[in-house]
């Protein structure tokens, strides 16, 4: 495929553009300090707290997902085998998120007074969500023409799974916010921005496999579904900090991610082998990339190596 494309821009511009925009957003956050004095929010009313958490959720959730979705033209310009590799990379991102949330389930479950209650919540959340989404997927495939695969519909499922995961992110922000820990809130926002920007291409990778580009409102809807629940999680974390609730939300997200991973594999399998060298490599690459962004980079932020605290 040529270096130019239907968007009239060189491929390298399509690849680098979102990175430049991300840098601009970080610079804007540094210069404007949009969260104000979080310590003063301890005496604020519920409405003011929810409004500020909505702003934080917008910046930490929806904005970076939207930036990541700007890679869609670049992904769409790839040859089919490389597009499959990018879809497999998205699978690696999802697999890491599932593993990370499993750790959160164990951590919060250990804090619940009743181990049996925590285990029940985890099993019901994972199994129930998987069963519901699997049933919905089977019904959807039964309504579609035989053999047809819609990348857009799978992208919506990916966005939903990531959105359920984003509730957990919001829980952490909400708890830190009501405790008046401005430094932790800022660091969490920075970490989530870097983490969530990779959720954008994870969502739209399946869409790039379709023959036509869907209307813009689908991208907007998927961005809100994937990143918007950070706001909901922030509200919940500020009003009802509960380890049992955290176990349930994380379990629901794990169940959703497992089902979506099956959908992603099925999407590749429709016209190619799943376990090619390229697909396996990019899957591992997506997993490692999320590890670096989520664990290594976040740890450096929290220890003050990258941002003075």
From TrEMBL:
Annotated membrane-spanning segments are 12-31, 51-75, 82-103, 115-134, 154-178, 219-238, 244-262, 274-293
Which keywords label this protein?
Membrane, Transmembrane, Transmembrane helix
Q: What is this protein called?
A: Metal cation transporter
